Amino acid sequence: MHEELHRLLLDKIERQELDLPLLPESAARVLSLSATGDWDSRKLADLIRSDQTLAGHVLRVANSPIFMPRSPIVSLRQALARLGLATVRQIVLVIACQTKTFHVKGHERKVRQLFQHSLCVAVFAQELARTGAHDVEEAFLAGLLHDVGRPVLLQQILDLALSRRIDLPEPLLDAWIDDLHASVGAALVRSWGLPSRIADAIGEHHVDGPSAPPLTALIRLSDALAHYALDTNALGEHELTVHPMLQTLDIASHDVSDMIGRKKQILQMVGAFV
Ligand SMILES: [Fe+2]
Ligand SMILES: [Fe+2]
Fold this sequence. Notes:
Layout: H1 2-14, H2 25-31, H3 38-49, H4 52-62, H5 76-83, H6 85-101, H7 108-132, H8 136-145, H9 149-163, H10 170-191, H11 196-203, H12 214-229, H13 237-241, H14 245-249, H15 253-261, H16 263-271
Helix pairs in contact: 2-6, 3-6, 4-6, 5-6, 7-8, 7-12, 7-16, 8-11, 8-12, 9-10, 10-11, 11-12
The protein binds fe (ii) ion (2 copies).
C-alpha cells in the first residue's frame, strides 16, 4: 500500500502534476521592488499598509531587541527610516514565507522548527556572503527557501494519503521528504520565476561534491552551520572550519570560526521572527 502511494507521488513529480503553492503575493511584490530609492520606500510602505496582519507583524519584528530600537517603533514610516528599506523588505519576505508557505495544518511544531532552521541558514548565508563578497540578498533568499520543498511535500503527501485513506508512518513520511525535497523545492522556485542560480542552489544543496557554483556552495556551508547552531545532526567545529566548500567560496577557516563565535547573535536574529 505504501509502495503504491510512493509510486503515485513520484509519478506526480515526474509529470509536474504536484499542486505547487504560488509565491506569496506580498513576497512577489517585495521582490519586484529594488532595494534603493525613496520611491520604492513609499511603494513598500503602501504594500505593507494594504495588509493589516502583515503591518502588525512588521512592527513587532522591527521592535525586537536585535534591531535595538532606541525607542518603540510605532509606524511603518519610522520602521523604514530607522531600519532601512533593505531590512524592511527582508522582514516582509520572511513573514510572507512563514505565514503562507511554511504552514501545514496539524504539523505546526514540525514546520515551525523547519522554518527556524531555514531562517538560520538564511542569516548564515547572508553573513558569509558579506565576508566573501557574494550577493547578500540573493544569499539570504536562497537560504530562506533552500528547504521549501519540505513543507510543500509534507502537505502534498498528507493530501495524497488522505485521499487514498492510507495511514502513513511518520518515519516513512520523513524519509520520502528527505529524499525529494531538494528537487521539488528547485522546481517550485523555478515556477515562481526566481533566478535559476537560486533554483540550482536549492536543487543541489545535499549533493556531495568537491566543487559547486558559489551560491550552491554557500548554501551547503550555511546549512551545516545552521545544523551546528541549532544542534541538529551537527558537524563538529573543526569539521566546519575545514568544510569542503571553503575553497570554492574563497572563505578562510578563521571566517568560519568567527561565524561560529557569532552563533548567539545569529540565533537572536532568527528569534526575532520565530
Ligand atoms: Fe535540505
Ligand atoms: Fe537545510
